[in-house]
Task: structure prediction
Amino acid sequence: MDLTLPETGWTPQLVALGVITTFGASIPVGFSIGVINAPSEFIKHWCNGTIHRNYDVHLSDSALNAIIAVTISIALIGGVIGSLQGAYLADRYGRKKSFLFCAVLLTVGAICFLSCRAASSVELLLLGRLLVGLASGLTTGVIPMYLAEVSPIKLRGAMGVLCPLGLTTGVVIGQVASLEQVFGTDELWHYALGCYVVLNLFCYAFYCWIPESPKYLYSVKGDQAGSLRAIRKLFGRHAIGDDYIKLQMECANGQNGSSSNGQHPEDGQPPASRSLCSVLQDSTLTLPLVLVCALQGGQQLSGINAVFFYSVSIFESVGFSSTAAKFANLGVGCLNLFVSLFAPLLMARCNRRSLCVLSCSSCAVILFLLTLSIYFIETIEWFSYLCIGTILLYIIFYQFGLGPIPFFIGSELFELGPRPTAMALGSLSSWGCNFIVGMAFPTLQGIWGAFVFLPFSITCVLLTILVQLYLPETRGKEITEVVQKVSHGFRSKVK
Result:
């Protein structure tokens, strides 16, 4: 069912499309994730005064803490809702228009942030966070799929990791913007929350220039002429001849008649998009669905956000001041970004399965060592430095596979029919688990202490076993070949 795109390598159009989607949506989403924690005390103070003026209500400390918790978590709830809508929007309106919708949601959210102080409205702040969350869920479900569908086979991984790379970049930029020396003050925090809107201009300025996914146009919309125009727009009008296009159309027609997606379209008719129920009930899709949801959810349950949360206290334990510890935490974020810059090269040259096994198994061991080092940090002085070392190692091995691969692996395990639904369910799993960690970690940390990291280590062990046994290698493989390998479910293990 997938058209085979020309193996032309990188073209200026492909590079430009990757840059536009990364700056237009992925980086703003990551920015919104990284910017919110530092100015939370200023937001709390402003909310207290604003609610008192508007409603003549005096809030207790617990009520103020609840408001901040809602402000942070409502974006995660929005991510869950946005993920659920991703499949519908991607099939109904296309990948390109879904990207535009992401940018519009982000822009409206930024307007809410920038105007909430002038309007003295806590409701605008919460609405902005909800809209940003909706855009985040939609972005993580649609953008990796869009980039994978416009890429030749050998570039599919390199293009697919641009979304997680953008998220990581945005987190670091958000941390910088929220510093006291930039916008992290009592008077400027709303600018910190909304200044990413400048990046949305990449979407609006170049939207008419970027093409729709040619695979979507042909296989979902049945628009052969539009698919031809999109291919030539991506790979050059003179580089692709009519004979090549006709051959690919014929091959795609042949695949439509023998699809292993559980669909049997009539000759000459594009396959219908798959509904959520049909995907969930299709036994041939059970294993790839488990893989996608487990990897995306496990990515959050591996404790990446918890490690960043705890690293500030680790740096303070070795003698850093509060301000210095925050800058050191920013340095950890920069390391995370630096290592992620190598992801496109790794995805192009190394097997996905091997990278994922290495990453998950290494993170399991490192998290166990982190647990031990935190537990004995008071009794053995140099264990403070061991904690820092394990955090840095965790960041490095996380970005080898567990960080980037879950975002785009669904595009390589599913054909076009069920792909949007599968990517939406994976994004739902990611944001849902992110919400669980965000809500449960502070409480469990108070109860379990250092042992709060053990569940993250166990998650990585389980992911290692799942990937080792059931994830087929997808690098350089046709989608139909991969689909056949996972269509038998858990009865046949990957060799």
About this structure: Residues 257-270 have pLDDT under 50 and may be disordered. The first helix runs from residue 12 to 35. The chain has 23 helices and no strands. The two ends are 26 Å apart (CA to CA).
